[in-house]
Amino acid sequence: METRSIADIEGPWVEQPFSSGLILRCKENWHVPVSELSNYALATFVRQRFGLTICVPEANRRIAIGYTDDTEMYDEELEHAVKECR
């Protein structure tokens, strides 16, 4: 189980000059251990290419066991995010 967060890989959060849903979602989850992220937040980090060394293995683990948490915007969002980052 991955206990590191995006902050452990990418460094401290840097405040942005503007706000959006994406920025707020990333900021709120920046220090959350990757294994505790929702599928939606994990898919967001994968799509944005943050912490891929820890996010992709966690995403692949969840995909392999069929883990869903009803947070994804659409079915198989996490799987699509992983495929897009290759």
Number of strands: 0
Percent strand equals: under 5%
Into which percent range does the helicity of residues fall?
40-55%
Encode the helix/strand succession as letters.
HHHHH
State mean pLDDT (0 to 100 scale): 96
Main sheet properties: none
Question: With helices defined by DSSP (H or I, 4 residues minimum), what is the helix count?
Answer: 5
Distance between the termini: 23 Å
Structure description:
The chain has helices at residues 6-10, 21-29, 39-48, 52-65, 77-84. It has a domain at 33-86. The longest helix has 14 residues, at 52-65. Helix 3 packs across helix 4 and helix 3 (39-48) packs parallel to helix 5. By secondary structure, it is an all-alpha fold. The two termini are 23 Å apart.
Keywords:
mainly alpha; single chain; 0% strand; 5 helices; 86 residues; globular
A few lines on this structure:
53% of the residues lie in helices and 0% in strands.
